[in-house]
Amino acid sequence: MDKEKSIKVLNEAIADELKALHQYMYFHFHCDDKGYDLLADLFKKTAIEEMQHVELLSERILFLGGDVEMVVGEKVEKEKDVAGMLNMAKGMEEKSYEMYNDFARQCSDNNDSASRRLFEQLVDDEERHFDQYDLESDNLNKYGDNYLALQSIERSKTYSAGQPGGGQAGSQ
Ligand SMILES: [Fe+2]
Ligand SMILES: [Fe+2]
To answer: If one looks up domain 3-146 in CATH, what number appears?
Structure first.
């Protein structure tokens, strides 16, 4: 096994994960600001999973005797339209799982089966992320603005339930 080869692709994967987690947190902030709780939560949960991927990749790099580069590339895309956010997120996930499939093959050729297994595990996660974004994208296409309005109304209901004079909390 050429450890440097594996360390190189593991660090490339970390750069990809960092890009995704910054972009998803940016989407989370804007969805949260507009009251779209379902999407805000999805972006945040996915960002946290990408951070956990950074941790797994880092552990493997240190085990192989390398160092974690933590390269932060370009700035986040300031996409504020929800359809645009979901499209961009789907594109990022697709690019990630295609890249990790390739990295898994490279690690296998390099006789590094633990790194190969790690990349295969990440492929499963990124495909699931793609699926979740795809589902929300379909919902938005199907229900249009009603889909977003429903999310805002849900938040209003939660708020009013927690305030005096409104809902269960106020009646106690
Ligand atoms: Fe990831
Ligand atoms: Fe992902």
So the answer is: 1.20.1260.10
